[in-house]
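An instance as discussed:

___
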Amino acid sequence: MELPELKNILKRLYKGYVAKHFKRIIIALVLSLIVGASTSATAWLLDPAVKKIFIEKDKTLAWLIPIYIIFAFSTKGISLYFARINIIKVGNRISGELQKQIARVILIADIQTLDNRHSGKYISNINYDCGAVQGLVSSGVLNIMKDSFTLIGLVYLMFYQNWKLACFAMFMMPLAIFFAKNLGKRVGKVQTQAGEIAGDFTSFLSEIFKASKMIRIYQKEEEEKNNAEYFINELVKKNIKIASVMIRATPIMETLTGFMIAGFIFYSGRLISAGELEVNNFFSFLAAMMLAYQPIRSLATINMLVYQGASASKRIFAVLDNPIETKNDERLSALKIEKCNINFENVSFKYINTEERAIKKINLEIKGGLMTAFVGQSGAGKSTIINLLPRFYEIQEGKILIDQQDIHKVSLFSLRKNISLVSQDVILFDDTVKANIAYADPKASQNEIIEACRFAAADEFITKLSDGYETLIGESGVRLSGGQKQRLSIARAILKKSPIILLDEATSSLDAESEEVVQNAIANLTKNKTTLVIAHRLSTIYSADKIFFLKDGSVLDSGNHDSLMNSSVEYRSLVEKQLK
């Protein structure tokens, strides 16, 4: 990371996040000043302690100076404690704010943006990168303030005791700064690599949890174990590299300190012999120089912490700065549903990173209150059409109208409020049955929830669960069968009471008996509502009022089932294949 980029990142971090906590930082600054003063006072007190107690044998000061020393150390400890508390709060609140912003971006980001980046990367941003920023603020900012004031106080004391010795001690500082600058650049580079590997590893863990059954049935345990070992070994290597680079400052600083103390003792001996330095001044100076070792080492390595935090901030800002194309605009008018007619006018759409359009100048006329089905081979564009209506994806050409209102000129909130979705990829939360269904309407009464479940043929199996509607269903509904999960999803859609229903392979996970019950429930649900159905199983579309037969992103033919059987050879061929 080059210096101009580093400055820009730190400037943004300060203006956008740190500046909000300016009062706490000022408090920590004042307390750091007290820490620096009390540390310097401790070193200075050795001057009168040696002279008055050991040389002049002053009995009064023999009591007072130890008390002053206790007071100095206590003041330092208390001030440092409260300074750290304040900065820790600032660091954690900034980290929390960044985590909230990333979470918000995930929740409102375009679906295509989420599709093109593994979820594990976002988890790594929240856990790993926000932690690095927290470390920069909590440790870095405090160390800069505390150690700077301490070093200034001790350097002043050294000059006060003997300016010649102080000039000798100052000679070593530029060398420490030079070495630290080079080490900091190396840390920044390795830290960036480690962050990327951490994201890849999180993605890998996410996948092996989801694919646990698949791994076992294909007997890939050994292969995935090797993959896990690869990621872990790479992460361990990078962490060792970071740690080794950071502690590389220790031998350098120790060696420099050794030269400094050796030279100091040699030069002090000559000054004492020449009568230019008293023994009490020597001990006070020595204490100041030894106490200065810790802040010098800390400040010499602070840029490593800065590079770590800046690298993490860069990855976080890349997520936050990703433009969001589909978002709610409160200035737009709300969608007004009347007949709920839907029209696609010359609509074309292409997914990111693909050259061929998924749908090509589609024209659809869907009557309100009726069931419309989309049929075709895989890749024909059925799911794309379903996803375009609630604006999960944005069209590149044409218009989509609901009751002659362009869906891009009404508020996104009002559009999605009027749409319910039941997909074959059932999404359930690790919560109770009731909570999962009430997700559609948190204010729904118990009776409304039960009624929705009865429509979806779910009430019967729910009442047989150990705790009924309060039964915890596990992550992704792992404690339920595929058909049961599907019916909960249907019940949730029913509870939303939306005028538009999207059914994407809605009955594909149900057995024949349950499917018949659910089909009847859906028939009641969709009465006087606009329903768009996608299914490969013919039982789902037999009752459709209109069917659009799609191929390669275009509409080949449309009509009801009987008319298509007579007019469309390809539709008839598709039906006959499924009947075999």
Notes: The chain has a mean pLDDT of 85. The chain has 21 helices and ten strands. The first helix runs from residue 3 to 16. The longest strand covers residues 342-349.
